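2024-03-11 09:14:02 INFO worker-7 job=invfold-0412 stage=load source=structure_tokens
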């Protein structure tokens, strides 16, 4: 593979000695400026390490290996291409067949060093066709040697490229949707680059600044979760958990600011234990609706297992016992515990049933109705009796005094 410096020299030669295949093209940056499209050999190109579709897997790889990926490394570039190929295999096969039949219909965008800013997936599939897969479509590999692309000017910096990529990739409708976690990472990247809420809103096609702020706070909770389970930057572990994080964030915020309506005086240590259990259920990929409604409670009211001390403490003891006995290590171990009908599910079911009983016992209106039914039944039975024992009479008098005392207080 050639270096980026060599690629820059070869691409510069192309745009200075060859005619563009298209002129007058525009981009969502540098209004009033037009760009030209050139045929660039795929051999000069490399995928973008900040590619939004695979950024979560790139960050995870870098964290696991303790180093950043390099576009100057043959192995790292091959790895990037493999990530793109495997991200949406079914969609990729359909697109590859279309490219084989109709050629490249949508132009890409590259830097003058050959880094692909827009069109990473198309270039990857063209590369696969050029490397031999054209045969199965009855085409010549030579038909897929080039990538049609706008070459960005050399004075464009990384921050402007990030904005451009966001507007091209995320701010527009795309046939292959992004994994939601990648969008949170994109917000994080843009904020770190110094972009404001209004700018990010515009680039990503969001409706309000509040959406950006919410995504920022949710991503912070995601990072906290990964740290808590000892898997920092392992973003693939977040897949499928967005709703759980949204519901969890609301409840955690109420716990932290003292607006959570529990039936007992919980301590900061209790909150830490509750958060840990929530993270355990998320790691087990526990079913989202039940997680929301039974474990953490619905966002608009406190009705999870944590609201009642006796229910929570028994549930927590059983939960810790389950983990001690089963000692989950791998993600498969956790998901086995979290499956429907699994041990975590059974423990939550038991706690939920006990919570209903306890709360019913604390429901004064319900208890008064139950007492009234009993009193009516006593009256009915006494009306049919010729004689009542002295003990029963004394008990009725005591009951009457207690009810009189309660009513007098209110």
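2024-03-11 09:14:09 INFO worker-7 stage=emit residues=410
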């Amino acid at each position: 593979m050639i270096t980026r410096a060599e690629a820059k020299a070869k691409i510069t030669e192309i745009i200075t000695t060859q005619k563009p295949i298209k002129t007058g093209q525009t981009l969502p940056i540098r209004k009033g400026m037009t760009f030209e499209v050139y045929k660039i050999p795929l051999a000069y190109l490399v995928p973008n390490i900040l590619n939004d579709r695979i950024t979560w897997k790139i960050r995870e790889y870098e964290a696991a290996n303790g180093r950043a990926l390099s576009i100057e490394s043959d192995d790292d570039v091959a790895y990037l291409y493999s990530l793109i190929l495997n991200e949406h295999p079914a969609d990729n096969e359909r697109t590859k067949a279309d490219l084989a039949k109709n050629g490249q219909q949508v132009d890409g965008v590259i830097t003058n060093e050959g880094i692909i800013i827009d069109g990473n997936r198309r270039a990857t599939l063209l590369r696969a066709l050029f490397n031999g897969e054209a045969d199965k479509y009855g085409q010549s590999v030579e038909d897929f040697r080039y990538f049609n692309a706008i070459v960005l000017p050399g004075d464009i910096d990384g921050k402007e490229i990030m904005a451009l990529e966001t507007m091209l990739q995320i701010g527009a409708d795309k046939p292959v949707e992004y994994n939601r976690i990648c969008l949170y990472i994109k917000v994080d990247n843009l904020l770190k680059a110094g972009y404001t809420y209004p700018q990010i809103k515009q680039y990503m096609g969001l409706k309000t600044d509040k959406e950006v702020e919410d995504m920022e706070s949710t991503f912070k909770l995601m990072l906290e979760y990964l740290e808590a389970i000892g898997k920092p930057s392992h973003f693939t572990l977040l897949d499928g958990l967005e709703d759980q994080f949204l519901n969890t964030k609301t409840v955690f915020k109420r716990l932290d600011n003292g607006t959570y309506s529990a039936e007992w005086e919980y301590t900061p240590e209790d909150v830490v234990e509750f958060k840990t259990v929530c993270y355990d259920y998320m790691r087990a990929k526990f079913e989202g609706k039940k997680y929301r409604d039974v474990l953490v409670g619905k966002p608009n009211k406190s009705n999870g297992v944590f609201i009642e001390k006796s229910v929570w403490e028994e549930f927590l003891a059983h939960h810790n016992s389950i983990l001690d006995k089963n000692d989950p290590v791998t993600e498969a171990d956790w998901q086995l515990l979290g499956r429907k009908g699994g041990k975590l599910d059974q423990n939550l079911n038991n706690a939920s049933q006990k919570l209903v009983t306890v709360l019913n016992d604390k429901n004064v209106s319900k208890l008064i109705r139950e007492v009234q039914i009993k009193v009516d039944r006593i009256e009915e039975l006494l009306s049919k009796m010729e004689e009542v024992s002295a003990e029963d009479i004394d008990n009725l008098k005591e009951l009457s005094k207690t009810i009189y005392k309660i009513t007098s207080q209110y």
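2024-03-11 09:14:09 INFO worker-7 stage=report msg="DSSP finds 17 helices and five strands in the chain."
2024-03-11 09:14:10 INFO worker-7 job finished
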